[in-house]
Amino acid sequence: MTARLTVVMAPDSFKGTATAVDAAAALAVGWHAVRPSDEVMLAPMADGGEGTIDTIAAAVPGARRMPERVQGPVGRGHDGLVDAEWLLLPGTWPGEGPTGVVELAAASGITHLDPLAPMAAHTRGFGQLIERALEAGVDRLLLAIGGSASTDGGTGALAALGARFLDDAGVEVRPGGAGLRDIERADLSALLPLPAGGAVVLGDVTNPLLGEKGAAAVFGPQKGATPAQMAELDAGLRRLSGVLSVDPETPGAGAAGGTGFALLAWGAAMTPGAAAVADAIGLADSIRSADVVITGEGRFDDQSSGGKVPSRVLALADTGGAAAMLVAGRIDADTHGFAASVSLSDLAGGTDAALADPLRWLRAAGELLAGAL
Length: 373
Prior knowledge:
35% of the residues lie in helices and 19% in strands. The chain is of the alpha/beta class.
């Protein structure tokens, strides 16, 4: 008789093709097709980017989605509004008071823009979501900052929380990256305080604010910036660094177009997103009770070992005594430590085929890994 196993499905999203929730479900269907008696637990993961709210909402009992209407990444006043949400976690988790999970991409994400607006886009809507969470009385904030559309140094977010960024005439600068070059001083006297339990920034990059590895140079092109605009944005971020008391070389300061820098100036703490989300959903406890854990992401490469979801899940599996398996759209790095691995591109016979129907190939990967036992 085949032993009954406990299996945890803990993939990240497969960017642009499958959410973490859908990927976990597809892997489970494939696994059960071969081993129907096994207990399969779904624990979709995230690293602080898009989908973080969905991941935590799926894992935490009593989590409530809080819909809001806020500013999108461009526009002011009543134009440019978008429907967004933040997540309210009950007071029993993880401490005494309720926790608010706010995802930058929900209000200020790049998916809201077509065409892109590298100089005009801002993070004001993200700040408005934080403000709504504070108004609701949360004791702690988890701030997921992946998927940003802007390089405004987080000035939009801080402005929504009461900060004022002023030019040499004492007038507030325009929103977005274009306004950074006019900043002469920052008035933080009306800035809302952190909640009692603090704020934790969930990120998956360690870039500084400025220079060749900074926000404008590395991430500006993804947001539509030309080389000339990248230089202007970096110069503007340098002006911002002169009016906020945070070291611009702090790892993660350049995350989300410099939003990491602004949140550090507010007093938030920076932490690797995958580790924080794993803690949020109790993944370590789930893995300790499991025999097998399957993780994955769209592309497994040399950066995956630097705090991404697969590396975090592998570490928890090593500690918890479970066998870790990997599924990725493409595998471009050594998979040492994983008991087995599957490339969807190889399985489908090519990258285009895998991208055309990722859930089909995720189910096939689940079957293949179950059969390998």
